[in-house]
User: Fold ABC transporter related protein from Xylanimonas cellulosilytica.
Amino acid sequence: MTALELENLTKSYGDRKALDGATFTVGAGEIFGFVGSNGAGKTTTMRIVLGVLAADDGQVRRDGRPLSLDDRRRIGYMPEERGLYPRMRVGDQLDYLARLHGLTPAAARTATTRWAETLGVAERLGDEVQKLSLGNQQRVQLAAALVHDPEILVLDEPFSGLDPVAVDVMSQVLRERADAGVPVVFSSHQLDLVERLCDRVGIIKSGRMVATGAIDELRTTDRPRWEVTGPTDPRWLAPLSGARVLSRVPSTGDGDRYVVETTDGDGQDVLRAALAAGPVHAFGPSRPSLTDLFRHVVTTEEAGQ
Ligand SMILES: Nc1ncnc2c1ncn2[C@@H]1O[C@H](COP(=O)(O)OP(=O)(O)OP(=O)(O)O)[C@@H](O)[C@H]1O
Assistant:
């Protein structure tokens, strides 16, 4: 069953249209990566889900019904501008947030300890937030989003500024929450990470979703692509009609590396053309990365919805 549905969200700030019919769904137990250029509308979308901002039009639904105030209280949110009290101690803050969401004092204490330990900040529970490094503050921010055992997670750039170990910890926590059935949506500009971690992604451009789906689905193109390492003379592909070079990376070692697009076939004609031009060191199918897909959709003027 679909856990979270955003349908046709529209929002303007004055005469600036920030969202123009944004629509996507996040299933229960699914990690959804929300990506887009600066100013594309990610934060605006997340604030609307949280209810801190009202949409001009459209709806957010949970399991098919409009998101209620009570549902919104069960969302774990990491805001882009962060939201911790700098002079409050880490432990007091987590405890306070847990109780604010309805946990008993004893349950709040247990949850505070649990999440501080999981996120590697247990030793800092007695310190003021402002005394922590930015990365550790972010770990506390995630603990703050999780301490009330939320049923939905909405995280605005949770990975920005984290060291690789903290990225691993954060990734594991998100996967573990998703495995427990929580729909997780997070925004990020770190596309390699999104590609690794997410079950599905949505790319937003100028307030409209221009691609949504599993990365493997988005990668599927009508035209096969091949990676060839070897030829150094760029004219090697000229005899092959219908094939074109998408990229060429010069190399001093095994020859240049090409990505070639063909209209159809199993690539053997590409391999033969390459071999006719000299030794071939590597040949195989090429699959676009999320970064390639992102570049493609955000630079294509009339990308479909
Ligand atoms: N409070 C506001 N008043 C006026 N315009 C705003 C406001 N908040 C956002 N905008 C505009 O709305 C558009 C969408 O902004 P939003 O912050 O949602 O983008 P974003 O995708 O989160 O960007 P980033 O990746 O830089 O965080 C931008 O053009 C932005 O300038």
